[in-house]
């Protein structure tokens, strides 16, 4: 006759997610599972993102962060003499890496980006393993790493905001799933302090809280207080560290209203949204088809061949996906790197659909690996004409100036400052702050001098008055903010500068003597 202790253990094992071994083998698998899986995930993370190391810079976002970090290291003040519409954690990380390793290369940031992908994969594996068992955990981690390069290489190989946002976002969901509400609130805050849209994960966190309170009949107010406290404390600490909470609030929240609008360029934005959605669907079709199949069968009211369905509720995952879709749509820009935020909930939904059906893992992993191989090869063969021209212009700028001189880049490619190793003449590293222009707004009527951020031109004039930049690079091309459409810039060039070089549609001007 079994002892009471043995009976309780048996009852507990019956409540474990499908695929988790019984109690007598639990410790062996618990210690061996991660020691085998983590090295495999680390290898896949490195291999899939190895192309990120072959270029000095992948995107203007990387160039902005690198230039910003140099300005901070040179005594700049964030949200004052160095500005951006993003939270401070990633600029600080760039600055720390430059302090330790120097600012000539981004390889330390690329290495940390690989580590961020690895942590995200491990957290997803932990969530999937707890719900659907060991094989599902391994599958979720591998699927994420394979699909994490399933967009344009400029969006997936760069060490930018979304990449470093994902670990905290997945951690917030994982903590909420385990009813660790204070930790979940802190994770949401860290996510939001990396990129504002990361805060969207608060929606599924709160949903899980209220569902837990409803099902277990417990009080939800103390847990809600823990989430709120955990969320506000890190943000308050950051505001105190910055010493200018008002500037932090403006640049991160209230000052981005005009930027986060469609501006009337609907055709471009719809095309970009559909295009990037199609690319991501193609990259993840192996695990997205099972999700579609499950939805179709549910809609058709057909019984599903589900094993352990009591452990397979995915409503919270759908809430997570919904909140991420809203976050991707904010601002109506639909840039490819925004779609990285959709990958974790999509991977978990796909993992659940495979793990609780008759679908085999092998074809899912084979297709996703094949798709990842295509994107990996695409990254290695990605055209480099734009980077070559930018490097050529940066070399010319460096030759025309000394390290003490300042430079003004009138365009949307701040990596010119970093590649030339020259100081910006203004805190506004792109023309967007002064014209309300952003990528894909070529047809927008809300671009021009009159649409600048509040007091931006007054600040710009004050900075230029302290000392004219030695070189001005007009990188606007045919964009709606070209000097002929911006009287202040046109007058500055006509009065004080002479043309010294033309590189395709980029013109270099030098101060008249």
From TrEMBL:
Primary location class: membrane
Keywords for this protein: Cell membrane, Glycosyltransferase, Membrane, Transferase, Transmembrane, Transmembrane helix
Enzyme class label: transferase
Iron keyword on record: no
Transmembrane domains' residue ranges: 37-54, 92-125, 183-208, 220-241, 248-267, 273-296, 317-340, 364-382
Domain spans labelled Glycosyltransferase RgtA/B/C/D-like: 86-216
One MF annotation (Gene Ontology) recorded for this entry: glycosyltransferase activity
Membrane topology: Multi-pass membrane protein
The EC number(s) this enzyme carries: 2.4.-.-
Protein localization: Cell membrane
The protein's name in its UniProt record: Glycosyltransferase family 39 protein
Organism: Kitasatospora purpeofusca
């Amino acid at each position: 006759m079994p002892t009471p202790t043995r009976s309780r253990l048996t009852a507990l094992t019956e409540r474990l997610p499908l695929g988790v071994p019984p109690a007598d083998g639990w410790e062996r698998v618990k210690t061996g599972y991660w020691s085998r899986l983590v090295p495999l995930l680390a290898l896949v993370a490195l291999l899939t993102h190895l192309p990120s190391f072959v270029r000095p810079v992948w995107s203007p976002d990387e160039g902005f962060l690198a230039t910003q970090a140099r300005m901070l290291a040179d005594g700049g003040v964030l949200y004052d003499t160095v500005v951006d519409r993003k939270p401070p954690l990633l600029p600080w990380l760039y600055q720390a890496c430059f302090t330790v390793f120097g600012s000539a290369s981004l390889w330390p940031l690329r290495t940390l980006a690989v580590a961020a992908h690895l942590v995200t994969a491990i957290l997803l594996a932990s969530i999937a393993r707890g719900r659907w068992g060991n094989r599902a955990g391994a599958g979720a981690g591998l699927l994420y790493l394979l699909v994490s390069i399933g967009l344009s290489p400029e969006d997936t190989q760069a060490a930018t905001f979304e990449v470093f946002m994902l670990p905290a976002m997945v951690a917030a969901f994982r903590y909420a799933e385990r009813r660790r509400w204070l930790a979940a609130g802190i994770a949401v805050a860290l996510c939001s302090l990396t990129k504002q849209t990361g805060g969207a994960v608060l929606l599924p966190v709160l949903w899980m809280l209220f569902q837990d309170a409803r099902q277990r009949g417990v009080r939800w107010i103390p847990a809600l207080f823990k989430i709120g406290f955990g969320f506000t404390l890190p943000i308050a600490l950051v505001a105190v560290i910055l010493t200018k909470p008002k500037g932090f609030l403006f640049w991160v929240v209230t000052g981005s209203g005009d930027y986060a609008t469609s501006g009337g360029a609907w055709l471009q934005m719809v095309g970009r949204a559909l295009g990037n959605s199609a690319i991501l669907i193609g990259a993840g079709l192996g695990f997205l088809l099972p999700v579609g199949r499950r939805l179709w069968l549910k809609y058709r009211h057909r019984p599903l061949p589900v094993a352990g369905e009591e452990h397979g509720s995915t409503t919270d995952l759908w809430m997570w996906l919904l909140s991420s879709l809203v976050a991707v749509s904010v601002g109506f820009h639909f840039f490819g790197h925004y779609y990285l935020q959709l990958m974790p909930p999509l991977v978990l939904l796909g993992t659940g659909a495979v793990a609780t059906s008759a679908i085999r893992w092998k074809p899912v992993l084979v297709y996703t690996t094949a798709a990842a191989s295509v994107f990996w090869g695409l990254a290695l063969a990605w055209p480099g004409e734009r980077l070559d021209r930018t490097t050529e212009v940066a070399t010319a700028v460096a030759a025309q100036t000394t390290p003490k001189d300042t430079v003004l880049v009138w365009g949307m490619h701040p990596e010119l400052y970093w590649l030339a190793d020259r100081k910006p003449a203004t805190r506004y590293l792109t023309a967007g702050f002064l014209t309300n222009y952003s990528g894909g707004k070529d047809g927008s009527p809300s671009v021009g001098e009159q649409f600048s951020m509040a007091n931006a031109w007054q600040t710009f004039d004050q900075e230029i008055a302290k000392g004219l930049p030695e070189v001005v690079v007009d990188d606007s091309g045919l964009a709606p903010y070209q000097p002929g459409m911006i009287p202040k810039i046109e007058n500055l060039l006509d009065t004080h500068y002479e043309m010294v070089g033309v590189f395709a549609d980029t013109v270099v001007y030098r101060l008249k003597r």
